[in-house]
Structures are given as C-alpha cells and as structure tokens.
Design goal:
20% strand, 43 strands, seven-stranded antiparallel sheet, 39 helices
C-alpha cells in the first residue's frame, strides 16, 4: 500500500546520552529515520537530550527539542507541536519506555497521537517477561525454564522451583541487561535480584535456569503490514551463553549452524514477530542452542531497532532504520527499492559473500575495584567491526581496529608461559582477555577439545584459531623478511596478518614489510558491500580491503600472464578529500568526534568535493552508506589508511576531527606522504600541520612557545625517577597533579597532597624510566577551569566559537565536568585575558581549522593548562548552543576558505544560558567509586538550556538522570578545608526548606555558624548510621567532598550506597553551589520551559562585543 496520507506530523524520540548498552547506534537510526520521513513529505518533531548527535542538528528535523527525555517534558512537546503519530522504535530502550509511559498516563490518547512502528500491545508482549513467555508457549517456541518475580520473596520462590544453580536474572524494560547478572549462590542471587527489581521500571525480573555453555545466535527480522517477513542477517556469538551479546565477539553470517538449524531459527523468528505483532519495522530475536543435542530456546526479542540492527545494517549494507521508518508509514517491503542496488526491492533478502566480525571495547581500567568478568549485564563502551573474505581475516582486522595496542591476534609481542592452573582459569572465566588466553593455550600445546571443554567456545572457531598458529609456524616464524616470497606473504595477508605482525615476526619495520609486499605485487584489492553478493550491480561505493589470488590467463604465445588486480573502486572526476574517523567508541573519545567527521563530509560535499570516509565503528552516522561519497570500513592503522590513500589518491586528508585515533597517525602519515611513494599520490594533509599538533603536545616545546608569548602556566616539572619526583614536587609545593607522559585522556592521573602519597603513586601507579617520565604540575586548588573552542583561517584570522566555564573545579577532568556557555562567574578582566591568549596561541601554532584551549582561573589570575589544535568534545555543544556549526566552518577553512568569506567575523553569543552535563556509568561497575577526579570516566553528555543558569543546570541534571530533589533531607560531609565554604551552601539549602544532616565534625562546624543540623553516625561508629539512613530512604541529597586518597577511600561506602539507592550525590563544592541554584529555580518554576532549536537560531546569532 502507498504511504499514509492521514499523517502529517510525526514525533521521533531519541535515546538520550551515550550510556553503556545504548550508544551512538541510535544516532544512526534516528538520523536515517528523520531523513526517510522528511523525504516522504512528513514533518518531523524530534526530542533528544544529547547535543553531540547528528540527529539533533536543526537541519535534520523540522522541530528539534534538546530537552530531558521524561514523560512530563515530552508531554509538553506533544501539547505544543500536536503530532499525529509517535515513532518509538528508533531511540532504543529509552524511547520505548517513554512511549509506554505516555500511552499509559493518557497523554497519547488526550492529544490523539497514534503509536506507529510498534503498538503498545506489541511492546508489552516483547518487553514484559511474563507476557513474552506466555506468547511463546502459544506458538510452541521453547523458552528457558524460568519464572517471573516482582519481589524478593517471589524471586526466592522461583529459585526454589527451578532448583539448580547458577541462575540468570533479567530485569524487564531495561537496556544492556542493566541490573541483571548470573548468580552462582543464594547470596549473589539476593543481591542481583534486588538490583534487578530496582533497575526495572515495572519492578519485574525474569529468573531462568542458566544456559551457560550453550551457543547464542541473533536474527535481525523485518515485517510489514502485509505480513511479508525478511531475515536481514544472522549473527553468531563467539562467546557462549552467559556473556551479554554486546560484550561478546560476534560474527555474521552465523558460521556453525547446519542448514536445518538455520531454517529452524528462521521459521521460529517469523512465528515470533507475527505473534508479538511488530508489523511495521525491524526486530532483533536472540536464541540459544544446546551444542549437545540441538535444543533451541528463545532468549528475548527487541521490538525495535537495536545495537545489533546497526551491526546487521553495516554488515549487509541493508538500511534497516530507513526502511523501518518507511514501513511505519504504510509502505510494504516490496514497494521500497534498496538504495544500495537501486533495483532490488527491500523484500529481497540480503546475501553476503564475506565475513564480518565485531569485537567489543572495554574500559575496566577506568573503574578500579570493578571486576573484569563478563556477565549478562553489558559493560563494553564501544565496538569495532571488520570485513574480510574469511573468518580469520575479519577477526584479525577487528582486533587491530580496537586500538588497544594489538596488531592482530598476537604475533606482535613476546608472551611468557602461563602456569597450567592459571591458564585453565583464564579459559573458563569470560573476560576481555580470554581470546588471547586461547592463543596462549594453543602455543602451550593444548588441543582444540581441551580448550573447548574449558571455554565452551565452539570447536569450529577454535579450529580456525589453531590454524592461525599453524600458519605462523610454517610460513613466518624464523624467516627474515627477504626470505618471504609472494605466495606465503599473500597467504598471511589473506589470513588477516597485519604488516606490523609480519614485521615483529621477521625483525623488520612495518614500512619495510609494505615495501616488500609492493615489490612482490601483494597488494590489497577493494571489494564492495552490495547486499546481494554481486548478483546485481551496486550503486553505492561502500568498500573493504582483502587479498585475492592473482588471476592468470593463457596468452597468444602460450605463456601464462598475470592479470591486474580487479579492484572495485570506481573513477571519480571530482577532487577527493579523505576524512579519518574515530574508530570504536571509548571513554574520552566518543560520538562528539563522529559528529565532527560527519560535518566535515557534509561541508566539503557542499564545496564540490567528493568525500571519502574511513572508519571501523558500526554504530555511527559516519559509517552510514550515504553520509559520504565513499565509505571504507577499515581499521584506522597506518597500513590500512595508506592502502586507501593509494587506491583513492585524494587531494587532502583530514586528521583533526576523529580524536586521538587519527592524530596518532598524523606524523607517520606526513612522513610517508613526504617519501617518494607518498609524493606519487599527490595527497597532502589538510588543516593545521601535524608538526604544530606535536609541538602543542610536547611539554618542552610548548613551554618555549608560552615563554615567547609571555603566557602564564602552572609551575611544573618532569621527573624520570622517584627521587626526582619528590624534589620537583617539593619545589612546586603540594598539592600537585601527577600523570605519566605516555598516556592520554587522563589515564593514571592523580592529585597528591603530600610526599607519602607521591611516593606511593610512583611505586604503584606508573612505570617510570628515562624514556617514560612523569609530568608534575602545580594543582590549582579551587580554580575555575575554562574551555575555549576557536576557529582560525590561513590568513591568521581567529574567531572564538565558544568560551565555557566549568562548574566542577580544575582537577576534575574536563570531560567529566559540567560546563556552561556563556560564563557566569568569571570577571571581565579574566575573560579578556583568556580571549587574547587564545588568539595569540592559535596564531603561534599556525592553526587552520579548530583549536581547543583549556585555562584555569584562580583568584582572578589566569593560567593556560593545554592547547589542542584539533576538534574537541565540546564542539557539538557549542554548535547547538550558538547555532554556529563550528566543524562545518572548520572544514571549509581547511579547504582554503577564510572566515571573512564565510561571514563569521566575531564570537557568537548563545540566545539562552546553556549547560552541558556529563553522564557517568558507575552503576554498571559494582565496586567503583563515584568521586570525580582527573581521569575521565563519563560515557556521554546531555544539554540543558534556559533563561537562567539555575534552570539550565536543573534541566541538564534531569537529562543526565539525576533528578534533583526540591525538599527532604540533605547529608553533608566534607574535608576540613571545605568546611568554611560549605556554610553558604548549607545555609542556602536550609533556606530552601531542606533538613540538614551531617557527621559530627561537619555538624559541629555548621552549628557554630548558627545552623540547625541533625548528627548521624559514620559507619564505623555504630548503628543507625549514615548508610542506614540512605538505604531506608531518609536522605534525598548527598554533598560529600573528600580530599586526598585516604578521605576518598573512607567515604567510598557512602557513595556506593547512594549509587545503589539512586540518591543524587555531589562530590565538589562548586557542584553543590550549582545544585542550590538549580533547586531554587525548580521551586520557583516547576514546569520546565522548552525550546525548539529552530526558534532559538532563527535569527543570525548575536555577537559578543569586540
């Protein structure tokens, strides 16, 4: 049937901030849906709290609200915009749960809004564990022996009925398995059930018999209103059941199913999607298969576009979200033409002639005290995907795409033997490192059968992995590079071995291996992702690299002649620009950088260039088939990027937008482009020179620039031994910030307050030697940190795009601090100094494009902290706050345009006060501490805008999931240094009607200042104590500011209890002052104002006075 004409305006809900279990795959799906619906002539109203997403760009929807995703706020948008329909299936679990809440509270019925894509009954049947189980019984699909519980008592009764350990606990209506887990004993069972009941918005958990050791599969399924059903992709987990699919290595298509088993899963998937009633879109269905007897059970179904949908979409080229959006407005699958082929309908199931591997990326090192064991609760922060002609090739490419220092599956470092008992444990226990323990086991002579017995990984995968070791032994080990001939070298490349691995094994350099390959004619060919295994011509240049056997033919003279490689890269008349993406998401490098890469592509297409995107992240908009003119799904390593440069020969390469990933390649790329082989490509790096970027990161060179410009920085020094460190810190004066020079993103950075803490840090936290010194800086206590994003052109003209004041003090990583634009407390003199120094540094570093600078202001004195001549994570926030798309403008500056030509003459001012708040994942990591520090741990961000700072901050906190109380009891506990400034905060809270509670020292101090305070015991002082008060609901807000390592440790129990019971906790005094302002604003105006970006930025942005 044709598109529905009774709908005019459609409301789309985003997924909010990037969190574990819900990442930028929903920016991809939401962006596709926006484009598809508008192309069909519908008006789109979008609500999402995440400013770093492409979908919240004002050009993507007709009306864009960057507002908290709560039923109350969305109801106000519905009241204002009056949409005809709500599409809830593109925003993950957040959007689905919101849609259910709006249906159940009557909002949708009150305003006549229809749910499309999945109706309320279908959502409930899929998400409610009890209804889903009943539905499966009706159609004869087996489910795991299980029971539903809504209380601890019911949970115990279910456990008694099942009668076997371990048990798996799955909360209803949650994302990424949040709150769930595997219980091996009654004590663990009680704890996980409690967290699961709390995590589930409907207080419901499913308790099921463990299927540990079973194989796990997923099918991506689509259905239309005419009951046409297609299977888009099958996905197999390499890890057995017991590991959340988001944390497992996965492979597409499924490798170990027999045809009969696959058809069985296919038939059951079709029956399930029909029974649940999803009739206009995509669903993800997960199965478990017993490897002993072939029994199949269904685990769960997501009645929406999911993380696996993004993977399946990128793996096959089939645009799942776009087609799901069109199905939701009435089209049938056979009426939609597949964009990739331009001729097959969407009812034509994708077929792939390659193998795709996804490997998750973790960040356990950021959360000390948290166990790295993988369970049914997802913990990965990102993922990389790779494509190859066989499993081994795609597997090794995926591992090197992770950017965790691995050049592939081993063969890049010396591995020490592991004792047998320890190796057994490493194989049994699912952790991110288990896959490397498998390699160690084969190296130490273990058999496939033995490794399978311990790990439950399918023997098919283990046989393939054992084959890699055998290939290394026969083709590579013990041979110098010049002894490797074309045949063995090509075979190694076909198995996914990188030049770095071959270089390590032969004792050569990576570029020497490249040169040897080139001489022998062992070069990659680029194949096309076309959804149909080359059965039809593809119109979309979406490529991956592989190594083919050369074809030969019999010549006229009777001799065999080798044919040239059959690359599928087509000629292009326009000048090309290559953009290097950010690779897998991680803490410190996330969606903000993908946003910048997408904007570079959009801007340069507008300038007439053909854009070439290189990236390995399947979750992103940048790896969507229609974001750039060409897409290469390849690892972001020197070898793989050079392969694309040689194939495309672009005019320019942009390295400044993808975060540290492409920046680490900048100097090696520059050196190669200056070589004879590089000059032959005619390619150059665009924007700021990598040498300037390196200068800004080299402490001694940067200090020389600062001295020349007379720009002040904190006292600092470099230490190459423990004794040197103590001497440097003594000269500077405590407290000091210490960090290793060889890591990025705040890793292992610490504030130390005395010599004994410094000595402990030097012994335990870092590896220090003359080549890896430790950097020591004066810690500017109670200083205000400032972020500046600025633009500079080739003529030396500099315009500040945004000057942001941080709310948390200097010493808290800028990525974890809330910040506001414009500044609210800084004096005009300090702001003038910051602006002047920003311009001077941008010119001195010869910046062309973006530069981010960080300053600290203490008692009116300004210090420079660092300068980064590249895109920063604040660029999207500034763009949404001011209406000026900084990344697009920077791209045009790199292409040779000037600020004057682009009409940007002065600093834009936002029409409202804007606040960006970080979202932190502490609840996912039991045992971790929520106190903020110099090491970044946030996964995402939200934005709040209002006419006042207090209201904007309150909206940002609400968007981040921290619902600030407007009354009740506040618990205060601070270090002695903070007790004097705490008084004003406590007085403000008392004036707002809060009861004050504190431990004895803080309580005595506040009473001396005339405040009424209730004293509560510390945990070690007896019962009832502060932890009892938190767990019994007696405290609504906590202000706890530990200073120093010991204090942070002492109060850890308190912050953990607050996390468990979702009590908002503030760990800095500056944050506490912001909370007072926010609560004041909420009490005065409980109905939060909402604003559409299109209204805010309709007029040209107001500019600040010169």
């Amino acid at each position: 049937m044709p598109r529905r004409t009774d709908l005019r305006r459609i409301l789309l809900l985003g997924s909010g901030p990037i969190v574990i279990g819900q990442a930028c795959e929903f920016d991809y799906s939401g962006t596709q849906a926006c484009k598809a619906l508008r192309a069909e002539g519908y008006e789109v109203v979008l609500v999402n709290s995440n400013p770093a997403s492409i979908m919240t760009d004002p050009e993507m929807a007709d009306r864009t609200y960057i507002e908290p995703l709560t039923p109350e706020v969305v109801a106000r948008v519905i009241e204002r915009e009056r949409p005809d329909a709500l599409l809830p299936t593109m925003g993950g679990q957040t959007a689905l749960n919101l849609a259910v809440a709006l249906a159940e509270n009557g909002t949708l019925a009150r305003w006549g809004v229809e749910l499309i894509g999945a109706d309320l009954q279908a959502i409930r049947k899929a998400e409610d564990r009890e209804l889903f189980k009943q539905a499966m019984e009706r159609i004869g699909v087996a489910v795991c022996p299980s029971g539903i519980a809504r209380s601890a008592e019911e949970a115990q009764a279910v456990a008694d009925t099942i009668g076997a350990w371990p048990l798996i606990i799955r909360p209803a209506f949650t994302l990424g398995g949040a709150g769930g887990g595997i219980a091996y004993n009654p004590e663990e069972f009680r704890a996980i059930c409690a967290s699961g009941l709390e995590a589930s918005p409907v207080q419901q958990i499913l308790i099921e018999r463990s299927l540990l050791g079973w194989k796990e599969f997923e099918l991506e399924v689509m259905r239309d209103t005419a009951d046409n059903v297609v299977i888009i992709c099958s996905i197999e987990n390499l890890d057995p059941m017991g590991v959340h699919t988001g944390d497992s290595i996965t492979v597409a298509p499924a490798m170990t199913l027999t045809d009969r088993e696959y058809q069985r899963l296919r038939d059951q998937s079709i029956a399930i999607i029909r029974e649940i009633g999803v009739d206009t879109g995509g669903s993800n269905i997960q199965f478990a298969i017993n490897p002993e007897n072939g029994d199949v059970v269904v685990i769960e179904m997501n009645p929406r576009v999911s993380r696996s949908s993004a993977l399946a979409s990128k793996a096959t080229g089939f645009p799942i979200a776009k087609i799901a959006a069109r199905l939701a407005v009435g089209y049938r699958l056979d009426e939609i033409i597949n964009d990739i082929t331009g001729q097959t309908p969407a009812s034509f199931e994708p077929t792939i002639d390659y193998v795709v591997t996804k490997v998750p990326r973790f960040a356990f090192e950021k959360f000390s005290g948290s166990s790295p064991v993988l369970t049914t609760s997802m913990k990965s922060v990102g993922e990389a995907m790779a494509i190859g002609r066989c499993f081994e090739e795609s597997f090794q490419k995926a591992l090197r795409s992770l950017e965790t220092g691995q050049a592939g599956w081993g063969c890049d470092r010396t591995a020490e033997p592991v004792p047998d008992a320890e190796l057994d444990r490493l194989l049994r226990q699912p952790t991110p490192e288990r896959i490397f323990a498998v390699r160690q086991a084969f190296e130490q002579g273990r058999s496939v059968a033995e490794v399978h017995r311990l790990s439950s990984i399918d023997p098919w995968f283990l046989t393939k992995l054992e084959g890699l070791i055998a290939s290394e032994r026969t083709l590579l080990r013990g041979r110098p590079l010049d002894a490797l001939e074309a045949g063995p070298l090509r075979r190694l490349k076909q198995l996914g071995y990188s030049d770095r691995q071959i270089a390590w094994a032969t004792g050569a350099s990576e570029l020497a291996v490249r040169s040897r390959r080139d001489r022998l004619g062992v070069r990659p060919v680029f194949k096309t992702v076309d959804t149909c295994a080359a059965e039809f011509a593809s119109t979309t240049p979406y490529h991956y690299a592989s190594y083919e056997q050369p074809l030969e033919r019999l010549g006229a003279d009777g001799q065999l002649e080798t044919l040239p490689d059959a690359s599928e890269v087509r000629p292009e008349e326009r000048l090309k620009v290559m953009i290097l993406g950010g690779g897998p998401n991680r803490i410190g490098q996330g969606i903000e950088f993908d946003y910048c890469c997408c904007h570079a592509s959009f801007a340069l297409q507008d300038e007439g260039f053909a854009t070439v995107m290189v990236n390995s992240n399947p979750e992103t908009v940048s790896t969507d088939y229609d974001t750039s003119d060409r897409l290469y799904f390849e690892p972001l390593t020197l070898e793989d990027v050079l392969n694309v440069i040689e194939a495309e020969r672009p005019e320019g390469v942009i390295v400044q937008f993808g975060g540290q990933t492409p920046l680490k390649l900048a100097l090696p790329l520059l050196r190669w482009l200056e070589s004879e082989a590089g000059r032959a490509t005619g390619t150059r790096l665009w924007g700021t020179s990598p040498r300037s970027i390196d200068l800004a990161e080299d402490r001694e060179q940067f200090e020389a620039v600062l001295r020349q410009l007379a720009i002040r920085q904190p006292a600092n020094g470099i230490a190459r031994s423990e004794a040197e460190a103590v001497a440097v810190a003594g000269r500077i004066g405590y407290p000091v910030v210490v960090r290793p020079s060889y890591v990025l993103g705040g890793r292992a950075m610490e504030v130390v307050f005395e010599a004994s803490e410094l000595e402990r840090y030097m012994r335990e936290a870092v590896k220090v030697d003359p080549d890896q010194p430790v950097l020591i800086d004066q810690y500017l206590e109670n200083a205000v940190e400032v972020d500046v994003d600025a633009l500079a052109d080739r003529d030396g003209r500099v315009v500040i795009g945004g000057l942001m004041e941080h709310i948390e003090p200097a010493g808290v990583h800028s990525g974890d601090s809330a910040c506001c634009l414009p500044s609210v407390t800084l004096a005009p003199e300090a702001l003038a100094t910051i602006r002047a120094w920003s311009v001077e540094l941008a010119r001195a570093l010869e910046v062309c494009g973006l530069i981010n600078l960080q300053f600290a202001v203490r008692e009116g004195v300004v210090y420079i902290i660092e300068a980064n001549p590249r895109a920063s994570r604040t660029v999207p926030f500034v763009a949404k706050a001011t209406g000026v798309p900084l990344a697009r403008i920077a791209s045009r500056l790199m292409a040779g345009r000037t600020l004057a030509e682009l009409g940007l003459a002065s600093e834009p001012q936002p029409p409202l006060q804007a606040v960006k708040e970080a979202v932190l994942p502490f609840r996912r990591f039991p045992g971790s501490d929520s106190v903020l520090g110099p090491e970044m741990r946030s996964t995402g961000e939200v934005m709040g805008s209002a006419s006042s700072f207090g209201l904007a901050y309150a909206k940002a906190e609400l968007g981040a999931g921290e619902v600030l109380p407007t009354g009740g009891t506040v618990f205060l506990s601070t270090h002695d240094r903070d007790k004097a400034p705490l008084v004003a905060v406590a007085r403000g809270l008392a004036a707002l009607g809060f009861r004050l509670m504190a431990t004895s020292g803080t309580a005595d101090h506040l009473r001396r200042e005339g405040l009424e305070v209730e004293t509560v015991l510390k945990v070690h002082e007896g019962r009832p104590n502060v932890e009892d008060a938190i767990r019994s609901g007696g405290i609504q807000l906590i202000i706890n500011t530990p200073i120093g390592r010991q204090a942070a440790y002492d109060d850890r129990y308190l912050r953990r209890a607050a996390l468990d019971y979702q009590v908002p906790t503030v760990t800095t005094l500056a944050g506490a002052r912001a909370v007072v302002e926010a609560v004041t604003a909420l009490q005065q105006r409980p109905d939060l104002p909402i604003h559409a970006l299109q209204d805010l930025h309709r007029q040209p942005p107001v500019t600040a006075p010169a």
